[in-house]
Amino acid sequence: xxxxxFGGSHRLTALAQQLRLYKPPPSLCNLTEQQPPPPTxxxxxxxxxxxxxxxxxxxxxxxxxxxxxxxxxxxxxxxxCLFEGESGDLRVILTKRSSSLYSHSGEVALxxxxxxxxxxxxxxxxxxEAKEEIGLDPSLVDVVTVLEPFVQKxxxxxxxxxxxxxxxxxxxxxxxxxxxxxxxxxPLEMFLKDENRRAEEREWMGDKYLLQFFDYEAENEKYVIxxxxxxxLIRAASIxxxxxxxxxxxxPKFWHRVANTDTSTS
Length: 266
Known about the structure:
11 strands, globular, metal ion binding, hydrolase, eight-stranded mixed sheet, coenzyme A diphosphatase activity, alpha+beta, magnesium, 3 helices
């Protein structure tokens, strides 16, 4: 990932430039302390990075640092791989997890997974997992930014990595049958629209929040994108299109608690 030899449309090129400049809002800067900074145009090995936040106190880059303050099993990364569809819309690659998996079986997810010992950073984790799960060669994807992390109830920090696939035709999906049942793509903008969407109120530790559910049908298959995956894609779409969703979001507070908080609560 991170090669400069990408073609693609002017729209994707402009989007890549836009996203390379992304900085988290000040209220979320404390969550970026364990994130690698976003990539620049230059490459050495994989990626050369720049600070996520303009103020020094909220940026502590770890992109090439061997140590982490959290155990490996408490950190994960997912790849938001964007490309331009045949009709010119911006689309994102998703998977349906295998029904034989122990956790989240049969659910829709972004390619990604837990950090492993050999991963240099979150970008490397997302790239490795995408290769293993769907056969996406990292050299085909231009990583443009890393978003602020989301924290699951059990304390796992999930870091979204945004990459652009400039030429979708060169990607030949190869799902890992042990992990992935299907590979499909959806328009990114759907996560800002109040269409084919519903929400359910939940409560955790006194915090009432809404879980968002998005229905999508492709090739006679029906999919439901919900919970953390939906939340990450709403955030990504809001950044890409530079506008908020057309519905009440009311996210769980625990998604954006300090990323290095250790918790065993289920």
